[in-house]
Amino acid sequence: MRQASLFTAFVHLSNAPLGGAFSPSTLPSAASRVSTLLRNASPSSTATEPPLNPLLSKIKPSKTVEVFSLVKQMEAEGETVTSLCVGEPDFAPPQAVLDAATAAMANGHTTYTAVTGTLELRRAIADDLKSRKGIEYNPVTEIVVGNGAKQCVYQGLLAACGAGDEVIVPAPYWPSYPEMALLVGASPVILETSVNDGYLINPEALDQCLKDHPKAKVLMLCNPSNPTGGVHSTDLLHQIAQVVEKYPNIIVLADEIYERLVYTQDGKCTAFASLPNMFSRTITINGFSKSHAMTGFRLGYLAAPARFAKAASVLQGQITSCASSVSQAAGVAALREVEESWLENNAVIMKKKRDYVLEELGKMDGVSVAVPPDGAFYVLPDVSKYYDGDDTQLCLDLLKEKKLALVPGESFGAPGTVRISYATSMEELEVAMTKLREFLEGLS
Ligand code: PMP
C-alpha cells in the first residue's frame, strides 16, 4: 500500500499565502493550497500584527467549505474537477419558487422584514409542521426564520447554552456542531456511535454519557444524519426521549434538514418534538436548502417553545436582522405551492443515485460501507485499508491525481472514511466512481 507519498511534495509547494494569487492552470498552486487548507487548522498572526480573538485558535475551518472553495479555484484555473464534496442538490428549485422570488422583487418586497420572518412564511411553516409532523407551533411566538439552517443551529445553541456548559455531539457528526459549541463558549463532548448500531445513537450509551456529564445542556440530534445518512426510527427516537426525560436540564437540538430525503419503506422521519413530553425540550431546525434545492436562497428556520424562539430572535436581531425578503417570499411558495409529488420524485431519484454508488463502492477492493444510508445524500465508506487510515492524505492525492473531490472522514469524527455526496448527476457519479476505482486500484 502506498503511504503518504505526496504530502512532502504538497508541503514543499505550499509557500503561497492562503489568499495569495494563483498562476493560471498550475496544479502546484492549487495543490499547495489544498495542503495548506486541509492541514492548517487555524489562522495565526505574526509578532508585529494585532492579535486575533483567541477563540479562533480553537475553531477549525469547515473542510467541506474549504475543499469546495478549492474545487472552485481549480475550475477557475481551467481544471475539470469532479466534485462530490458539497451537500447541495443538483436539481433546480421548483418553478413556483423562482417565480415567487421574481414577483417579490417586481412588487417591491425588497425591504427588511420582521426579524423572525414574514408572518406569511411563519404561518406556512407552522401549517407544514402541523400537517406533516403533527407538531403545533405558534407562528407568532415559536418560529424564527433565519439565513439558512446553519445560522439557526448556531442561534439555537447560543440560546440554550454557554460558557462552562457541555454539548453532546454524537459521532460521526456534521463538523459545524463541535465548532459551534466552542464558539458559544461551551465544550463539545463526543458521543461515539458504532457501526453495529448503524452509527445511530445508542440509548444506553447516551444515558451513561449524560450521567458522566452533569454539565451537559444540549444533545445534538442530526436526523437524517450528515454524514452517515442514518435515520433514527420512531422507536429509537422514543427510547432516546425516555433517556432525555431523566435529565431535566437537557435540550435536544433536532436538526431535521434532511427529513424530506428518506429511503426506508415508509419514507418516514419522525420529528423529535412530536414525541410525548419532548415539545418543551426540543429546538427543531429545518430549512429549504436540501428539500427544495434552495441552498443559495439562504433560508432556514428554528421552531421551539417561545422562550427559546424569543432568545434566538433577540440574537438574530443583533447579528443579521432578518433573512432576505425575496427568499422568504420564495419560501412561502415552496411550502404553499410545490406539489408533494415534486418532493417525492426527488427522493426517488436520489435513492437511485444512492443505490448506484453503493453498488459501485461494493465492487471496490478495500472499501466497505458497513451502514448503507437510509436518508440524506451521503455515504461514508471505510477506506482505512489505504494510507494507513490517513483519509486526509488520501483525499489530497485523489484530488491532485484524479481531480476527484471528496471530504476526509476525519473532519466528521470518522477517521479512516471519506464522505461522498451523491447529490449530483448520474453522469458525474459514473465519472467519479471510475476515478475512485482507478485511483484505489493504483494503490493496491
Ligand atoms: N445542518 C446540516 C446537518 C447540514 O448538513 C447543513 C448543510 N450542509 C445545514 C444544517 C445548513 O443548511 P443551510 O444553512 O443551507 O440551510
UniProtKB/TrEMBL annotation:
InterPro entries: Aminotransferase_I/II_large (IPR004839), AspAT/PAT-like (IPR050596), NHTrfase_class1_PyrdxlP-BS (IPR004838), PyrdxlP-dep_Trfase (IPR015424), PyrdxlP-dep_Trfase_major (IPR015421), PyrdxlP-dep_Trfase_small (IPR015422). It comes from the Eukaryota. GO terms for molecular function: aspartate-prephenate aminotransferase activity; glutamate-prephenate aminotransferase activity. Belongs to the class-I pyridoxal-phosphate-dependent aminotransferase family. This is Aminotransferase class I/classII large domain-containing protein. Gene3D superfamilies: Aspartate Aminotransferase, domain 1, Type I PLP-dependent aspartate aminotransferase-like (Major domain). Keywords: Aminotransferase, Pyridoxal phosphate, Transferase. It comes from Cyclotella cryptica. Residues 80-436 form the Aminotransferase class I/classII large domain.
